[in-house]
Write a structure and sequence with these properties.
By secondary structure, the protein is an alpha/beta fold. The chain contains six helices and seven strands. Helix 2 links the parallel strand 4 and strand 5. The longest helix has 15 residues. It starts with a helix and ends in an 8-residue tail after the last helix.
Length: about 250
């Protein structure tokens, strides 16, 4: 069996574990409680295809007690305003709405939480689309490979800590933390795949404790993994082959 097939088989096995409930090793008596504050928010208008909805925006919330990169270890939460008056959107209400959990990780670089905005194509981003479909949106930032304390597994640990925050605060905020849908592209797609495959796994407990993640679950309901960059050895070779004559780089 060659290296590529072995790697593919391993990734398939990891993904299949997402369908199996793993034991909960995520609860520790010495972990702090970071309670969601439902009183501190702004109201934003969110436009899509000529339709505008109002959304409560809870932004820049610390999701761990001991952040090493506090500008990144924060989460933005957006909730349709109509849920607070008993309305439904797309068949969902305040208690049943899924929680869409997109990340902005690319190139395994540090990423700040996503906001209500337009994407690189100039069109409304996935946060906007999810809100108009009745989802609650929560986007966490994460450390990356360019930060001194951001080496692996820092990125995946941060995203798990954000999920724990949502699970621990399920009774205090709108949305159903049993239906968290993670999403990412490229390296963010790889992070999403790993979130699906490693829910509540004991291997991450030490790192989660180190940053002061709250007690709770970090398993997820579903994964949207777009063009995930997981096979880094072959990715490096592909870039070298495609870009061997290009020596200038502009981000």
């Amino acid at each position: 069996m060659n290296k590529t097939i072995r790697f593919t088989s391993l990734m398939l096995a990891l993904m299949l574990t997402a369908c199996t409930a793993l034991p909960n090793h995520a609860t520790h008596s010495n972990t702090p409680i970071l309670a969601f504050d439902d009183k501190t928010y702004t109201v934003q208008d969110v436009d899509l295809n000529g339709k505008t909805i109002k959304v409560r925006a809870y932004e820049n919330i610390p999701y761990v007690a001991n952040p090493s990169e506090p500008d990144y270890q924060r989460i933005n939460i957006y909730i349709p305003e109509s849920y607070f008056s008993g309305s439904t959107i797309n068949g969902y209400n305040k208690d049943t709405a899924p929680i869409f959990y997109p990340n902005a990780v690319g190139g395994y670089m540090p990423a700040k939480p996503m906001t209500i905005s337009v994407g690189m194509n100039g069109k409304p981003n996935s946060v906007v689309h999810a809100l108009h479909r009745g989802m609650v949106v929560a986007s966490a930032g994460a450390r990356g490979r360019t930060q001194g304390v951001g080496k692996a597994p820092a990125g995946i640990v941060d995203l798990k800590a954000g999920i724990r925050y949502l699970s621990a605060n399920d009774a205090l905020m709108a949305g159903d933390a049993n239906k968290i849908i993670v999403s990412g592209t490229s390296a963010g797609g790889a992070m999403s795949a790993l979130l699906g495959a490693t829910g509540d796994h004991v291997d991450y407990a030490t790192e989660l404790d180190k940053i002061g993640a709250v007690s709770g679950l970090d398993r997820v309901f579903a994964v949207m993994s777009y063009c995930p960059i997981t096979n880094l050895d072959h990715a490096d070779m592909a870039y070298e082959w495609q870009l061997s004559d290009i020596h200038d780089y502009i981000k």
